[in-house]
UniProtKB/TrEMBL annotation:
Top-level taxon of origin: Bacteria
Name of the molecule in the record: PIN domain-containing protein
Length: 169
């Protein structure tokens, strides 16, 4: 008899939404992997979460058509909105640590907020992003651990790209 495997909970960061409609030839593979991830979310392979941070980033887009298409992915594929931690001060504190220690660049405050949110959300198994420069990067994650483990935080999640979390048939 096979053992039960808990359905993984994903936090889907904004960059993943962006690749769903990307038309650049050099991004074709990322687009295909992104579409497969969303299909697997819809088919119940994962519980997928998004946040107000994702919504705010999408709302910043000046192209209203693109903005509408990205927001529509949330309802079409059944992503659920994560409740922001009640400790909003803690969210801001953690994100400030990442910026001040230059783990995340100062001009990427939303990336620092995503990271802080996931740290404060123990139900998340995987933080899914295509941002390999500032997020899905082992060197960045090592620095994150060095900054927050001494403060008593546990990192019970992995930062991955869609390519690493999807099921391959």
């Amino acid at each position: 008899m096979m053992g039960y495997i808990k359905k993984s909970t994903l936090y889907v960061e904004t960059s993943v939404f962006g690749f769903y409609y990307d038309e650049k030839p050099e991004n074709r593979d990322k687009k295909e992997k992104t579409k497969l991830l969303f299909q697997q979310i819809q088919n119940g392979y994962f519980t997928a979460l998004y946040s107000d941070i994702v919504l705010a980033e999408i709302e910043k887009l000046t192209d209203d058509f693109k903005k509408h298409r990205l927001l529509e992915l949330i309802s079409r594929f059944g992503l659920r909105k994560i409740d922001m931690p009640s400790a909003e001060d803690e969210l801001r504190l953690l994100s400030t640590i990442f910026l001040e220690k230059q783990i995340i660049p100062l001009n990427k405050k939303d990336d620092a907020l995503h990271l802080a949110l996931v740290i404060l959300s123990p139900q998340i198994d995987y933080f899914v992003t295509w941002n390999c420069k500032h997020l899905a990067n082992v060197n960045v994650f090592r620095r994150v651990k060095a900054a927050v483990l001494p403060l008593g935080y546990e990192l019970k999640f992995e930062i991955v790209t869609p390519e690493e979390v999807i099921f391959y048939e």
